[in-house]
Amino acid sequence: MVFKQLVTGVMLGLAMMPAQAALNVFACEPEWADLTRILVPDAEIRTATTAWQDPHYIEARPSLIAAMGRADIAVCTGASLESGWLPALISRASNRGVQPGKPGLFFAAEQVELHQPHDHVDRSMGDVHPEGDPHIHLDPDRLPDIVEALADRLTELAPDRENAIRLRQRQWHVGWKLNTARWREAATSLEGMPIVVQHSTFGYLLRWLGVEAAIDLEPKPGLPPSAAHLGKVLSDPALDEVKVVLIASYQNDRPAQWLSEKAGLPVEVLPGTVTEEPKTNSLAELISHIIERLQQYNDKAAPESADHG
Ligand SMILES: [Zn+2]
Question: Which residues lie across from 212 on neighbouring strands?
Fold first, then answer.
């Protein structure tokens, strides 16, 4: 009932509003485009990367510079995820509203506590982000704080949309809590399941699920899997317990396929972020899909209560 009232409230609110110029948004990654669209469905959003691109490394192309120049707000991950390209984009676009410290530049990673912050970082550690692991977008517990902060920021930039944004945020939160409860239940069957990963792309979600990233194909964060490292992986006793090799769709699958052949393990390639395909076209769908796929490889998931379903 409450839900229905919220929806009606949003519609009435919108009907009474005068025509507004669309909010122009630059999203560094598809997950932030997804969340921004939930809060402001009529926003004009340009997304800089796709699930088939490595978000650490893209080119500051002229079309992206132009999009940044038009933006009212850039919504990005931060914590140095985009340090290889975003500063260049911002400086070349010279959009006065989208600058460090201005409300027009929103970093999701600044809204929550990160895993694995490092006081000291040097090249020998690989491509480590000093602020901590920036791949926060699949963390069921962190997203509500990020969405709330994003709603605050959008409201600051477009005060005339405040009521609609707040209502949509609350609606989203209700749905997210229901999803989180469902995921929590599914997670009990996945707890302790060891898998091989490549980079920490799915790290926050795996940790939340209790899935153990037992082995990383990267010798060090951000360094491509080397022959020497793969040799070590193959002789790692932990490999015996592993159920599946999980990599993201933007990653080169050759190391995973090599290990799969040598160790007789299945490889699962999943989008690391939201796509336009069914099953992964929102963050909630994507998380549900990842959990479902992981369950395929887990013996413990064989349900004793199959006849109930
Ligand atoms: Zn990374």
Answer: 194
